[in-house]
Design a protein that fits this description.
single chain; 305 residues; alpha+beta; Rossmann fold; D-amino Acid Aminotransferase, Chain A, domain 1; Dna Ligase, domain 1; globular; binds adenosine-5'-diphosphate; binds magnesium ion
Length: 305
């Protein structure tokens, strides 16, 4: 197969691992910086160009599109889709999962467990917003934050009010959320491929820190998850339409709740914590999808006789 990996940096662990495994399995791989791709979107035979070269047709594309380049990145991915290239994750699913409000609304509609959450842009009645999500302590998040930055724990109602006022004063969208104290500063990353959780790790925040992000000094370890956690993670990925997803759960006393569904989950933490070859599982998933696609198109052709 010819496989394109959309990644801005070929040196990243996840990119390197995918290249290594795909090549070992006999595939031809190109790593493409999505911002360097350009295209004629009105052409009858869509193509993608790169540094003066027409890239030709790929069998599959693995999008690893950073949050900051979602808009252009998903447009490039769409062009590959128009050329009949199989996307490991589809562009619409990536856009959907990058919008936190939309994601939570979709997950909630499917009855998937979520922390009680409120959204606000410019509420006139902050105490009522706080009351709506069950009062302090609560977690206030910037909608656009990543790696734990912009996630604040407000222990009292007064603190919550000032933090909300401060965020709204700088005109950012926020999310106000029930604090899942019983999670004990830990969350669970479930790595989903297709309809399976292929690996799971627990991330524990450092002493005195409620945020478990590895970037904030958290540590990862192997964990056994419950059947309910497993099915929650798989349903969350499916709701987003993602074949590959990192679903972050908290263990709350009202069952597993989904915090985030990540469409480009990193491999380093999870492969190190679990010792599993998740890069290979992704390549094998692509191989299987393409085999099935080929078989079903052969059956269709034969059927037409
Ligand atoms: P980011 O996108 O920046 O990683 P998250 O929403 O994942 O933001 O929050 C960062 C971390 O903070 C989580 O991994 C979790 O450990 C902790 N956390 C977030 N929300 C809650 C919550 N409602 N209750 C308890 N802990 C939380
Ligand atoms: Mg997170």
């Amino acid at each position: 197969m010819r496989i394109a990996i959309l990644s801005r940096n070929p040196k990243l662990y996840s990119t390197r691992r995918l290249v290594e495994v795909a090549e070992a399995r006999g595939h031809e791989v190109r790593v493409l910086d999505v911002l360097r791709c350009y295209m004629n979107i009105t052409s009858h035979s869509p193509s993608v160009h790169y540094r003066g070269e027409n890239l030709g047709k790929f069998d599959a594309v693995i999008p690893r599109i950073g949050a900051s380049v979602t808009f252009y990145g998903t447009a490039v991915l769409r062009q590959f889709e128009m050329m009949g290239t199989f996307p490991l994750n589809e562009s619409v699913a990536i856009s959907r999962s990058r919008d936190k409000l939309r994601s939570m609304q979709l997950l909630s509609r499917k009855g998937i467990g979520l922390p009680v959450t409120g959204f606000a842009h410019k509420p006139d009645d902050i105490p009522d917003l706080i009351k709506m999500v069950g009062g302090a302590p609560l977690v206030i998040k910037l909608l656009e934050g990543t790696q734990g930055i912009g996630v604040v724990l407000a222990e009292t109602e007064k603190a919550a009010e000032s933090v909300i006022e401060a965020f709204l004063g700088v005109k950012v969208n926020i999310l106000v959320q029930e604090y899942i104290k019983e999670a004990g500063g830990a969350d669970i990353r479930c790595f989903v491929i297709g309809d399976k959780v292929v690996a799971a790790m627990k991330r524990q925040g450092k002493e005195g820190e409620f945020r478990s992000n590895l970037h904030r000094g958290g540590t990862a370890s192997l964990i056994r998850i419950t059947p309910e956690e497993r099915s929650t993670a798989v349903r969350a990925a499916k709701t987003m339409g993602l074949n590959v997803a990192g679903v972050d759960l908290l263990r709350s006393n009202h069952g597993p709740v989904v915090m985030e569904v990540n469409s480009s989950p990193g491999l380093e933490g999870i492969e190190t914590a679990t010792g599993k070859d998740i890069a290979e599982m992704q390549i094998m998933f692509i191989e299987k999808q393409l085999r099935e696609k080929k078989q079903s198109s052969m059956t269709r052709t034969r059927g037409r006789g």
